[in-house]
């Protein structure tokens, strides 16, 4: 009789305990649910998220909540410094506090159809090719063998970081970079319009898009994090989704020439066109301003531009301007394991795929471009004024970009 009574007491105590557990569990589900949906507090302009902004009731069942934290953290790196906050005084201490500082993200868009297999396969192929080429000793270029630690700080100025969504974008000028920079501004909420983050990429004024104060780039880490900079970069490179867009290297050069020398551009006229005219066009004293030059119909030809690129003097003075600097020098594709490689030739499909992969297609749309893009079919026309010997030298100069990113050697213009 005694044992059966004991048994009853056990059952009752057990049930009571279970009910208690359920109540606690339920409460925490509610709390963490609320927590995950806490609206993003005033955006990146806030220098330090207030310290009291912590996990509600995290003391009660720490393991359950920390599981959620771990889950969230997979997608969202702690916000170690938003793009526009002032340099904190105790900058080097920021990295330790990193875990305390993240901001919840918005809901993802639910997709009923999976990403098309051919798009996924395309990315697999591009990434595989890049890895193979980086490992292949038949392709040699300066800086290929160095480690990430050996890359000088100033060469990291094209990597834009968005801590809110865990994204790193390496921008390549002349490859839809304005549009992707706009998207990065929207995502990082670094532009406030009457106190509200600007949500429409196309509403961002052009001069702001390229203003470096709008973008948090890797080369700014040193100022903010001091000796922790390289370490933090490596952590972010490991956890964040990294992408870049490339295009046919010769077509990119044509596009750069059209944009900077066929259109009136005072800055480029003074810095580069005058040099080309003096060196290669028998113009010892070229017109002083771009307006004067256009008035008398003087501007460097495409052939002069190519001569300028091939001239050993050019790089002795300073590195190539970013508009024609090789992608391998801008983005370090053998040191950084890019998750997504877009091609301008397939920009729309790639753009849509990428926004989906980044899980931000609910936040921004890729702006469709209706501009007259430089087409590869014009290549033969443009290069017809360039001597074949110079074309081959130019290919050597840009060969790594061709091979790393899967652009065929343009035999038709190299074998004449
Ligand atoms: C953290 O910052 C304080 C001053 O704010 C400084 O004394 C301390 O050395 C820093 N800690 C580290 C690890 O840099
Ligand atoms: C390296 O690249 C060349 C030319 O693309 C190719 O023929 C060769 O098989 C590659 N080597 C390796 C080890 O992949
Ligand atoms: C890089 O390393 C390979 C062997 O691992 C070597 O053959 C090649 O010459 C090196 N390239 C440079 C630029 O140092
Ligand atoms: C960039 O923006 C900052 C402030 O937003 C401004 O002070 C600066 O003049 C701008 N630079 C250029 C080149 O427009
Ligand atoms: C694009 O521009 C070229 C000349 O630069 C012109 O021949 C061509 O017709 C234009 N195409 C469109 C669609 O505007």
From TrEMBL:
Residues passing through the membrane, by range: 7-26
Show the GO MF annotations.
Answer: sulfotransferase activity
List GO BP terms, alphabetically: carbohydrate biosynthetic process; proteoglycan biosynthetic process
What UniProt keywords are attached to this protein's entry? Answer: Carbohydrate metabolism, Glycoprotein, Golgi apparatus, Membrane, Signal-anchor, Transferase, Transmembrane, Transmembrane helix
Instruction: Locate the region Disordered.
Output: 43-63, 77-100
Instruction: Answer yes or no on keyword Ion transport.
Output: no
Q: Where is the composition biased (Low complexity)?
A: 54-63
- In short, the EC number is 2.8.2.-
Chain intervals with Pro residues compositional bias: 43-53
Read off the InterPro entries from this record: Carb_sulfotrans_8-10 (IPR018011), Sulfotransferase (IPR005331)
Q: Which family does it belong to?
A: Belongs to the sulfotransferase 2 family.
Name of this chain's protein = Carbohydrate sulfotransferase
């Amino acid at each position: 009789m005694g044992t059966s009574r004991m048994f009853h007491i056990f059952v009752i105590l057990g049930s009571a305990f279970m009910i208690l557990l359920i109540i606690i569990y339920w409460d925490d589900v509610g709390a963490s649910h609320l927590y995950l949906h806490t609206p993003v507090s005033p955006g990146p302009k806030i220098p330090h998220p207030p310290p009291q902004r912590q996990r509600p009731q995290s003391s009660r069942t720490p393991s359950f909540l920390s599981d959620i934290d771990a889950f969230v953290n997979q997608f969202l790196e702690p916000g170690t410094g938003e793009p526009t906050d002032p340099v904190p005084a105790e900058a080097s201490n920021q990295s330790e506090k990193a875990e305390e500082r993240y901001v919840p993200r918005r809901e993802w868009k639910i997709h009923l159809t999976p990403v098309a297999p051919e798009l996924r396969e395309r990315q697999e192929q591009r990434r595989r090719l890049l890895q193979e080429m980086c490992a292949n000793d038949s392709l040699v270029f300066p800086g290929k063998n160095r480690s990430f630690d050996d890359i000088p700080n100033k060469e990291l100025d094209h990597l834009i970081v968005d801590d809110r969504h865990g994204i790193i974008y390496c921008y390549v000028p002349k490859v839809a970079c304005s549009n992707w920079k706009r998207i990065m501004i929207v995502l990082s909420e670094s532009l406030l319009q009457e106190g509200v983050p600007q949500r429409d990429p196309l509403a961002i004024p052009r001069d702001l898009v390229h203003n470096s104060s709008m973008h948090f780039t890797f080369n700014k880490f040193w100022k903010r994090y001091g000796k922790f900079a390289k370490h933090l970069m490596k952590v972010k490179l490991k956890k964040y989704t990294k992408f870049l867009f490339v295009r046919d290297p010769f077509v990119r050069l044509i596009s750069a020439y059209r944009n900077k020398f066929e259109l009136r551009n005072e800055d480029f006229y003074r810095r580069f066109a005058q040099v080309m005219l003096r060196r290669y066009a028998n113009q010892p004293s070229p017109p002083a301003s771009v307006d004067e030059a256009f008035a008398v119909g003087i501007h460097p030809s495409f052939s002069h531009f190519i001569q300028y690129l091939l001239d050993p003097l050019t790089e002795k003075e300073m590195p190539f301007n970013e508009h024609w600097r090789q992608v391998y020098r801008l983005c370090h594709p053998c040191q950084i394991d890019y998750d997504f490689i877009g091609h301008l030739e397939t920009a729309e499909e790639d753009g849509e795929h990428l926004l989906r992969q980044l899980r931000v297609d609910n936040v921004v749309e890729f702006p469709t471009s209706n501009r007259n893009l430089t087409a590869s079919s014009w290549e033969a026309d443009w290069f017809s004024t360039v001597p074949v010997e110079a074309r081959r030298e130019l290919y050597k100069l840009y060969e790594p970009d061709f091979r790393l990113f899967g652009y065929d050697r343009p035999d038709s213009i190299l074998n004449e």
